[in-house]
Design the sequence.
């Protein structure tokens, strides 16, 4: 069978990214897909972009990627001071990387062992429409719909997304919804995580299929040290989230994601 490593929400945390990539290599997995948010929140956004461009076969755009690239403005709910944070990340990564982020696709559709799989950063509505693990069944089922954002392609059996930094998997009949969690800013456990999707890649014929979540430790002290050395904004909040995995926005009606 083929194996695909699914990573997301690196957020400029290079120690976490390197730990995940090392684990992926140890399993001899060569295909890596990233579900966005390479930049933002963490201290080394430029390095995160460079590494993911080199190591990931496919990357979709995240909400931070979109704003830092100048493709979209921050949501109206975001306070004005947050704009200065986005400006710091834009200046740090430079024009070429920002242009690259701005050209990333919003969705990725594929076949895997006869399953129709869709990968997005946040939801079929776009990069700013967030869906929580504890949202209603109605909101979860809407994740399987086609929209203007996804286009009128295949109707997925399996949807994988990111954005909320909270890994989970749930089933609705023969359909599976899962969240890949976060490499660099997990908010469920203070461990980097990624998923392994196994099956016959690109095949519409039914065959064995599996999804497996991998969690692993990384050097949080080093990540925090690099943050303080970088002079990045909101360092205290970043350190607290890395050490405690404090999930600050656990409200099912909230649609704003930073």
Sequence:
């Amino acid at each position: 069978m083929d194996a695909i490593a699914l990573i997301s929400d690196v957020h400029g945390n290079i120690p976490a990214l390197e730990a995940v990539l090392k684990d992926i290599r140890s399993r001899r997995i060569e295909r890596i897909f990233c579900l966005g948010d390479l930049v933002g929140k963490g201290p080394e956004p430029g390095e995160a972009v460079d590494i993911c461009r080199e190591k990931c076969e496919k990357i979709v755009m995240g909400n931070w990627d979109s704003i830092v690239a100048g493709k979209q403005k921050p949501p109206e709910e975001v306070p004005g001071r947050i704009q200065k944070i986005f400006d710091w990340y834009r200046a740090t990564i430079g024009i070429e990387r920002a242009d690259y982020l701005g050209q990333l696709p919003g969705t990725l559709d594929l076949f895997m062992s006869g399953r129709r799989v869709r990968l997005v950063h946040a939801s079929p509505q776009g990069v700013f429409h967030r869906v929580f693990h504890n949202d209603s069944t109605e909101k979860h089922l809407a994740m399987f719909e086609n929209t203007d954002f996804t286009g009128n392609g295949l109707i997925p059996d399996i949807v994988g997304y990111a954005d909320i930094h909270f890994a989970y998997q749930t089933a609705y009949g023969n359909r599976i919804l899962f969240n890949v969690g976060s490499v660099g800013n997990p908010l469920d456990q203070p461990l980097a995580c990624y998923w392994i999707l196994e099956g016959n890649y690109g095949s519409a014929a039914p065959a064995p299929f599996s999804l497996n979540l991998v969690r692993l430790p990384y050097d949080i002290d080093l990540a925090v040290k690099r943050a303080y050395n970088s002079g990045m904004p909101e360092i205290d909040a970043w350190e607290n989230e890395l050490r405690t995995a404090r999930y600050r926005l656990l409200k099912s009606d909230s649609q704003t994601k930073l």
